[in-house]
Write a structure and sequence with these properties.
Elements lengths: L2 H28 L7 H23 L6 H4 L1 H20 L1
Helix pairs in contact: 1-2, 2-4
């Protein structure tokens, strides 16, 4: 398995995790249970799960009233895309 396949596998896993934690946290909010920390939600986005987190926000209608999620998650994604483009330009 080459490095690009490993990165793709990692990004798939972390984005699925980002999507899932948004859904889990939404269900916990509905049931008034212990919640996932916002810092954890952002950490998952920062380590590569921003797209999954954004999709989870939209699908589950979760954290969409918090400006720091509405603007922060897309900002993280934009920075990540720029970094990927720069890395790919240097390694291809």
């Amino acid at each position: 398995m080459n490095i690009f396949n490993m990165i793709a596998l990692y990004l798939t896993a972390v984005n699925l995790a980002g999507f899932a934690v948004m859904g889990i946290d939404k269900q916990k909010a509905i049931k008034h249970l212990w919640r996932i920390r916002e810092s954890t939600l952002f950490l998952i986005a920062l380590i590569g799960g921003s797209l999954g987190s954004i999709i989870g926000m939209r699908v589950f209608h979760h954290k969409t009233r918090h400006w720091y999620f509405v603007y922060g998650m897309p900002a993280i994604l934009i920075i990540q895309v720029i970094l990927v483009v720069l890395v790919l330009r240097n390694y291809t």
